[in-house]
Amino acid sequence: MAWKVGAGIAVLLGLVGVAAGLGSDADPRRAGWREAYRPPAEIPFPSENPYSAAKAELGRQLFFDPILSGDGTRTCATCHLPDLGWGDGRARAATRMQGDMDLRTPTLINVAWQDGPMGWDGKFPTLESVAAMPMTSPSNMNLPMADALARLSADARYASAFASAFDDPAITRERLEAALATFERLIVAGTTPFDRWIAGDEAAIGAAAKRGFDLFNGRADCASCHSGWSFTDNSFHDIGVGTGADIGRGRFKPTSVALRYAFKTPTLREIGRRAPYMHDGSAPTLEAVIDLYNRGGIDRPSRSRAIKPLHLSATERADLLAFLGTLATERSRDLTTASFTAAVPAP
Description:
By secondary structure, the chain is mostly helical.
């Protein structure tokens, strides 16, 4: 089920038409490529967890409230900071003892459009299933689910909020997960210079970024994985990074050579705010990411067939970097304090 969004998420509305805008150095396929990046008009919500303003507001409160951690020092926003592209700026997420977790914190931007298994290694079948693991993990929020539900039930504010968000006022694990997922689906990328260019404003991005777009979709073939408006195919690929016991989807598909070091393709939205990069934070800058793809990563049987040395010139690498720079939101929406009473209209 999907409801049309309100004006607060401007990137999803009012973008019509794509001008060809081909310069003398443009790839002749550019106009066709641009069509693939038109934004959707709706945020999708699953039929088993449809949108409601009360549920979204409850999810927002829960996301930023330390009531869901054992000692009251951590929240969901401890690792998913809005100012850091809904990541945490670390190579690997921090444990509550300030050690390192196995993987980098993934962004929540455009999570509503993620299909199939979620997480770097696909350990979560749905968005609703994600919250329980960090909440109950001793190294993370360290709060058993039964204790979390008891705390919320004893809090008059939450008792009232759950009663408003659900037909049955009982506070259950399923309703806690549903509220958090509803809020998280509203974490949507805002309008960027790239989006204005796709809408037909030829002056929105520069010539270098346009050449970078051609490379991204053409010879460099970045779009084979980072495809469409959200810049991800929602699939898992070995790009020649993981080694040893640091495995990805192969954790759950051990007989598949192709999936052994395969990690999920992340969105490139707000990519400039989300350093370091890769599942393990091993690429400190976007320049390092481009260099990795340029040399093709580790050559091995499991590496994706699409990954191979690109032999890009310094100018071409600079053009790709210029293009990635156009994917940053010009004006972000503050979801830490936003009220969702009118964010999505009633059906």
